Amino acid sequence: MSRALAAALAALAIAAAGPALAAGHVNRVVVSGSINPASADYLMRGIAESEADGAAALVIQLDTPGGLLSSTKDVIQAILNARVPVIVYVAPRGAWAGSAGTFITLAGHVAAMAPGTSIGAAHPVGLGAPGGGDKEGRDSVAERKVENFAAAFIESIARERKRNVSWAVKAVRESVAISWEEAVKLGVVDFVADDLPDLLRKSDGREVTVAGAPRRLALADATVRELPMGPVTRFFDVLADPNLAVMLILAGLLGLYVEFTTPGVIVPGVAGGICLLLGCISLQILPFSWVGLLLLLGGIGLLVAEVFVSSFGVLFALGAAAFLLGGAMLFDRPEISDLNVSFWSVLVPAVAAISLFGAAVVFGVGRSLRRRPVAGVDELVGRIGRAESALAPEGTVFVRGEYWQARAEEPVAAGGRVEVTAVEGLRLRVRRAPDEGPG
Predict the structure, then answer these.
(1) 201 partner at 20 to 30 Å CA-CA among 165, 208, 419, 426?
(2) Same CATH topology for 2-230 and 377-432?
(3) Is 405 helix (H, G, I), strand (E, B) or coil?
(4) CA end-to-end distance (rounded Å), the chain
(5) Which pTM was predicted?
(6) 377-432: which CATH architecture?
(7) Is 431 a residue whose pLDDT tops 60?
C-alpha cells in the first residue's frame, strides 16, 4: 500500500512539473566577440534550427565584451520567445559576459559560468567624464534616457527569469562586475560548470518555463551537435570590429597614397582599394559618427602634410590630436552601441606608425637631396675626361663616353686630363686635372 502511494505521489510530482524533454541531442553555438548583426543572426538561426530539429536544448557558449543595443535586443527577444530551452554558458575560463553579454546571460532559461569567468559592467559606454557625463558629472538627456531604458530592460529580464533584480540594475547604473563565485552566491546565474559535460549534468532535471509551459530538462545522456557559423556570417562578424575597421581604413589610405606617388606599381593600389572597401563595409555594419570620421581623415591629412610642409611640428601636433580624437569618437554611440576603438592598442600605435613613415620619407628625401646627381647633365660636374684637341682655350673633350665642346680655364694640351667644373648649355667648362699617380 505504501509503495503504491509513493508511486502515485511521484507521478503527481512529475505531472506538476510538466512534460520532460526526452534525452536526445543538444545544439551548441559559440560566440567569442562582439554582439553585432552577424553574431546576432547566428544566435537567432541557432534558436530557430534547434526548434526545427527537436533539440532538447540550445547551449550558447558566450565570451563577449558587449555589442550593439539593437542586436542585443533581437537576441534577447529570440531567447525569451524561444520554444526550446536556451542555456547560456559563460566560457571558457577567462571569458567575460560584459555589457550586452550580461543581458544575454540573464535571459537564458539556464545561466551558468565556468570557473575564472566574470559578468557585469553593463553601463552604456560614452565619451566624457567617468560615468558617461560631462566634465561636472552631469549626464546628458540622451545618456540618461539610454541608461533608464537599459536599466528597465535588464530589470524585466531578471524578473522574467527570477534572478537577482537588484544586482542586474546595479550592473547597468553603477557598472558593477562580479566573478563567477559571487554570481552564484548572489543568484545572478544558476551554477558553475567546469566544462560542457558538467554543464549538461547540472542542467539535467531542472525545471524551466519554455513558451509559457513548464518543462523538465533531461540532458544527462544527450549528445552535443555543433552549429558552426557560416563563412559569410563569420566574414561579417570579423568585419564588425571597430579596431579592425580603423586599421582597414588606414591601410587603404596608405596603399592609395603609395600608388598615387609611384604610379604603375599596381599592387599597393589594389590592396589599398580592397582594404578601403572592407573598411567601408565595416562602417555599414557598425554605427559610426560622421564627426569622428571627418576628424580621423583630417588628422591623417595633416600628418601627411607635415612631410611636405615645413611647419616645425605644428601640423603634426594638430594631426595627431585630430586623429586620436576622431578615432575615439568614431564609434562612440552610447545610445546604439558600447563598442569603441581601443585608444592605447590601436590609435596610439597608428599615430606612431604614421609618424615613423613620415620620418622615413623626410629622411629619404633629405638624403637624396644631399647625394650627387646620378642622371642628366648635372652629374657631369666633377667628372674626369680627356682633351681630344688642344684647349686654347676651346676645343673638344671626351667625357663619360661622349664628345663635348669645352672651354678651359687655362690651356690644355691634346690628350691631357681635364675635370668638368660646370655645364653651360651644350658646352662644358673644364680645368686641368692632376695626373694620375703611379699604379
Answers:
(1) 165
(2) no
(3) strand
(4) 128
(5) 0.72
(6) Beta Barrel (2.40)
(7) yes
| pLDDT at residue number 232 | 93
**What CATH number is given for 2-230 in this structure?**
3.90.226.10
| Domain range annotation of the chain | 2-230, 287-371, 377-432
| Helix or strand holding residue 71 (H, E) | helix 69-80
Cell of 287: 554605427
Confidence band, pLDDT 50/70/90 cuts, at residue 226: very high
What pLDDT is stored for residue 372 in this prediction? 59
- Amino acid 6: pLDDT: 41
Centroid of chain to Cα 417:
67
* pLDDT tens string 13-27: 434 444 444 458 999
Question: What is the C-alpha to C-alpha distance for residues 143 and 149, in angstroms, rounded to an integer?
Answer: 10
The grid coordinates of residue 204 equal: 539535467
